[in-house]
């Protein structure tokens, strides 16, 4: 019976494989090539772990050779897991195993070797986590991945880099993740979302926090779109909406919408995780998800509690509020969450004297309840400071979320007494009317406008005057595109000849759109070829004093879809680096179509992306202008 047959017989009987059962070390050595050619690497790990000390040196050499030549990814993975989880073997073999793992990582030319390379990378990473080897080798390897990596390897690598960044940080790891988006978009984008979320929580400025949360949501949404069953990414999108909504003063009913999305996503997530076990070294990530869910639910409940002047069970409610007030202790210990969540809680206690009375009563006898007296005292101190602030300053702070309503009610006694929920509804209605003055009668155009603008709500710059001006420019571009598909030669004259010319240039579109905006968007400074923007020259500059929007214009021979548009995002997004992060991308589509062009609804969409090396999202409204038009009668 060969040594391979002996191993198979032991496995079939459920008996341990020992040196004696294999015929001793000499026989193992004589048949080592035959043994190593089989998927028994995990068996060899168990063999070494249970063998006498006089066999350890020989078996260690055999095991290292086995890792070097193994061809079965499953056996390689199981053997690495068993070795790392056995402290004695891990410490004994780690130093000799590092160059073998490094070599296996470097060889990844086909699916089989890619998977072994991924498991080798995981093993090297886990050895560094355990302190068996220094982390410098694995960090150097992780920092060098590029966009040409195979999908199978890239997916594993992105997950490992994400965990490595959570452990040690490092801009090189972030850059590597950004490159891996090309090969493993869903996984790399998800990990980049975590990087940006962590970055947001490290800030102490609301504008910085909001900007980075916006970028994180863009990445999580990218992962959701790119990958199937990405309930984890959907959950984090909902969490970000809840945190931002709580900061913005949304009601409990309004916060229930993202909370329901979060609940559904987590149910899907639990179902997925029940299929297999989560490795111990990934367990903290799961714990973190649970903490975020608890905080999100707590914030929604807190919003409801803060709208009431009194509570039935003051101690229990206060304990819950203080948990949200001190959320950074639960999540990360960074100041970002406190900066977002605490002001609303403090403002509610200032506004509702009944809540402040509950707090005073509980602080008078802290031993009678379970609240954190130190934290509650800190809250009371902050409340007193806010009360002592100048009344006008506090009024401006609370009304900043409702600029239109404030301007309408300025000076009226009732302006300060409106419930926040009512104020939010009135502000929304005023905003809709304000934006609707110049709307076009075409219901399709209005529907497109509503869809495009609703997709911009995550953009921190899309508010106030900037929002109004962007909406005005968008409406004019919508009207332009609709007219250019409707108007015939007689209506347009020579100005529209390019729409039927197969040799049309982007400059023709630039000239036509400039004239349209110049004549219809009278509040803007519309110019072409403006130099000194992003070290380049703009196609179309739409200026409104302090803020501006750049329309990048292109020509494409062939149908224009999202992939084609994305190839131009780098240039279009570059113009947003030093001003508001909003812009346009227009593409003249030159195609000899057998039928009619795309509908106006198919010619517009919104896109958000985070450039490589950046933490903030850029937002682009894409529009395509069909060229080479034919009359309906010619399509018969």
UniProtKB/TrEMBL annotation:
Protein name listed in UniProt = Uncharacterized protein
- Give the species this sequence originates from: Neorhizobium galegae
Lineage of origin: Bacteria, Pseudomonadati, Pseudomonadota, Alphaproteobacteria, Hyphomicrobiales
């Amino acid at each position: 019976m060969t040594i391979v047959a002996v191993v198979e017989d032991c496995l079939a009987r459920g008996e341990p494989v020992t040196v004696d059962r294999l015929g001793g070390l000499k026989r193992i050595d004589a048949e080592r090539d035959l043994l190593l050619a089989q998927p028994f690497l995990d068996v060899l790990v168990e063999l070494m772990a249970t063998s006498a000390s006089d066999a350890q040196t020989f078996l260690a050499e055999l095991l290292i050779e086995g890792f070097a030549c193994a061809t079965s990814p499953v056996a390689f993975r199981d053997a690495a897991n068993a070795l790392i989880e056995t402290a004695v073997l891990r410490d004994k073999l780690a130093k000799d195993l590092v160059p073998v793992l490094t070599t296996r990582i470097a060889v990844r030319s086909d699916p089989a070797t890619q998977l072994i390379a991924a498991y080798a990378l995981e093993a090297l990473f886990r050895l560094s986590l355990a302190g068996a080897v220094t982390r410098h080798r694995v960090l150097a390897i992780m920092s060098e991945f590029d966009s040409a990596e195979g999908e199978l390897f890239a997916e594993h690598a992105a997950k490992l880099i994400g965990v490595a960044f959570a452990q040690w940080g490092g801009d090189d790891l972030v850059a590597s993740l950004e490159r891996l988006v090309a090969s493993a978009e869903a996984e790399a984008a998800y990990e980049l979302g975590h990087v940006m979320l962590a970055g947001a929580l490290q800030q102490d400025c609301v504008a910085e926090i909001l900007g980075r949360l916006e970028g994180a949501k863009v990445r999580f949404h990218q992962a959701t779109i790119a990958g199937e069953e990405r309930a984890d990414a959907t959950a984090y999108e909902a969490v970000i909406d809840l945190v931002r909504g709580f900061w913005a003063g949304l009601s409990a009913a309004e916060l229930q919408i993202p909370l329901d999305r979060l609940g559904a996503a987590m149910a899907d997530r639990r179902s997925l995780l029940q299929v297999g076990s989560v490795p111990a070294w990934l367990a903290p990530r799961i714990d973190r998800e649970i903490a975020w869910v608890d905080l999100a639910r707590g914030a929604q409940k807190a919003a409801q509690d803060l709208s009431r002047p009194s509570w039935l069970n003051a101690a229990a409610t206060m304990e819950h509020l203080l948990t949200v007030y001190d959320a950074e202790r639960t999540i990360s210990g960074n100041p970002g969450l406190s900066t977002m969540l605490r002001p609303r809680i403090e403002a509610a206690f200032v506004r509702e004297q009944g809540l402040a009375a509950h707090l005073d009563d509980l602080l008078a006898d802290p031993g009678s309840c379970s609240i954190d007296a130190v934290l509650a005292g800190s809250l009371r101190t902050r409340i007193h400071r806010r009360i002592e602030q100048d009344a006008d300053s506090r009024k401006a702070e609370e009304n900043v979320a409702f600029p239109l309503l404030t301007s309408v009610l300025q000076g009226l006694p009732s302006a300060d007494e409106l419930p926040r929920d009512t104020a939010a509804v009135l502000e929304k209605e005023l905003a809709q009317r304000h934006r609707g003055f110049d709307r076009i009668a075409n219901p399709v155009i209005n529907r497109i406008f509503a869809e495009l603008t609703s997709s911009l709500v995550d953009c921190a710059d899309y508010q106030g005057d900037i929002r109004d001006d962007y909406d005005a420019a968008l409406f004019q571009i919508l009207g332009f595109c609709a007219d250019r598909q409707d108007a015939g030669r007689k209506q347009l004259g020579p100005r529209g000849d390019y729409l039927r010319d197969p040799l049309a240039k982007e400059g023709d579109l630039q000239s036509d759109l400039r004239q349209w905006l110049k004549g219809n968007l009278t509040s803007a400074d519309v110019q072409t070829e403006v130099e000194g923007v992003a070290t380049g020259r703009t196609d179309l500059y739409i200026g409104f004093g302090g803020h501006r929007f750049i329309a990048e214009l292109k020509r494409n021979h062939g149908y224009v879809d999202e992939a084609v548009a994305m190839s131009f995002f780098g240039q279009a997004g570059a113009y947003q680096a030093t001003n508001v992060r909003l812009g346009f991308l227009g593409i003249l589509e030159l195609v000899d179509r057998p039928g009619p062009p795309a509908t106006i609804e198919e010619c517009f969409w919104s896109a958000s992306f985070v450039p490589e090396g950046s933490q903030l999202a850029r937002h682009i409204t894409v529009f395509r202008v069909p060229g080479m038009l034919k009359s309906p009668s010619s399509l018969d």
